[in-house]
Amino acid sequence: MNETRTEIASLGEFGLIDHLCKNIEIQNASTVLGVGDDAAVIDHFGKQTVVTTDLLIEGIHFDLMYTPLKHLGYKSVVVNLSDLYAMNAIPTQITMSIGLSNRISLEAIEEFYEGVYAACNKYGVDLIGGDTASSQKGFIISVTAIGELTPGNFVKRSTAQKGDLLCVSGDLGGAYLGLVILEREKKIFLESPGVQPDLENQQYVIGRLLKPEAAKETIEFFASSGIKPTAMMDISDGLSSEVLHLCKQSNVGCVLYEEKIPIHNDARNVAFKFELDPTACALSGGEDYELLFTVPQADYDKLVLNENISVVGYMTEPEKGCKILTKGGNSFDITAQGWNAFQQ
Ligand code: ADP
Ligand code: MG
After folding, report:
1. pLDDT tens, position by position, 258-306
2. pTM flag (> 0.85)
3. CA quadruple 101, 104, 110, 112: dihedral positive or negative?
4. Which of 24, 290, 291, 333 has the least CB density, counted as fewest CB within 10 Å?
5. What is the set of domains in the chain, with CATH numbers?
6. Residue located nearest, by CA, to atom 15 of ligand 1
7. Comparing C-alpha atoms, which of 244, 172, 177 is closest to residue 205?
């Protein structure tokens, strides 16, 4: 750990921006002009431009007690890229705006930017601007992400069809279980500081919360195998609420099979340790940043070639509602809080 503490005020706003942005190397031909002028210039050369933005507030969206700043920088970029991938777009640029309280030193914000640049490099996006201001209380982060796609190739939430297969990428519930662990450790620490945390065998779920990845490979797989989902969105709030959004906006119903919901073994084990139902964690936990999408049945043969994709159900007439079929063979309505039977 770097123990020095340099006050941001000693650099001034321009000095800080200069310091944070001095090593930027542009990666995309579409970035015509980046940091340093009144605005950036982008040319997507006939492609369509996709834009999304997110606001993250300390104490609401993250807790600095257990969130390393480098991970926070990484995650604040990734959650925005996830929204672009959910449109079937390829991310190209981001802007990063920050509100800094005087609790945050230069060293701390440098660490945050290390995470930002790690995500930019991993996903091939350019940081092309932002804004810097002071905040009375708490750290505030606003990221805007810009991407491109072939005209008309975007995938909306509202176009799923009856008979389509309902699919998810990756696995679900892990980030929520990471949160459960870290909240427990925080409580223990506040009650008896000095007690060492027991985080053994829990790296996977903690990593899912603190350093999520966006579904880049899934989008690349669609492109290379000629799949265009009929509808798509990212899973930031838990599977059940996202399935309900997709069904409502597409005016269809669905059947979701409990046994098909992908849950990592480590997540399952942590759930059992905390006496939680793994399925309930996948349905109601948030922040997994996987993709939820539908494809025509004809694409099934192509889909199964990808081990990272699970077919979890299918779409029905709207009159049939949104149902989950349990391992025991019972059918329940899907509710936004998950599946009621789990909450008893
Ligand atoms: P303005 O006064 O027009 O808001 P600024 O002085 O805030 O301009 O910004 C100067 C340049 O630095 C601009 O290109 C802006 O986009 C960029 N910039 C400002 N803050 C950040 C930041 N936190 N991260 C990255 N770029 C930034
Ligand atoms: Mg400014």
Report:
1. 999 999 999 999 999 999 999 999 999 999 999 999 999 999 999 999 9
2. yes
3. negative
4. 333
5. 8-149 (3.30.1330.10), 165-333 (3.90.650.10)
6. 129
7. 177
Give the number of the atom of ligand 1 that is nearest the alpha carbon of residue 127: 25
Ligand 2 geometric centre to CA of 132 (Å)? 6
- Residue having the nearest C-alpha atom to atom 17 of ligand 1: 129
Closest ligand 1 atom number to CA of residue 98: 23
256 Cβ contact list (under 8 Å, min separation 6): 166, 239, 243, 312, 313, 322, 323, 324, 325, 334
Spatial contact of 233 and 160, defined as CB atoms under 8 Å apart: no
The ligand whose atoms approach the alpha carbon of 37 most closely is 1
Structure tokens, 290: 């996987």
pLDDT tens-digit map of 223-245: 999 999 999 999 999 999 999 99
Mutation test residue for ligand 1: of 76, 117, 131, the one with most atoms within 8 Å of CB = 131
List ligand 1's pocket residues with C-beta within 6 A: 17, 20-21, 35-38, 96, 98, 127, 129-132
Q: Distance (Å, rounded) from C-alpha 336 to C-alpha 344?
A: 15
Under DSSP, the state recorded for 212 is -
Q: How far is CA 101 from CA 108, 112, 133, 194, in A?
A: 11, 14, 9, 27
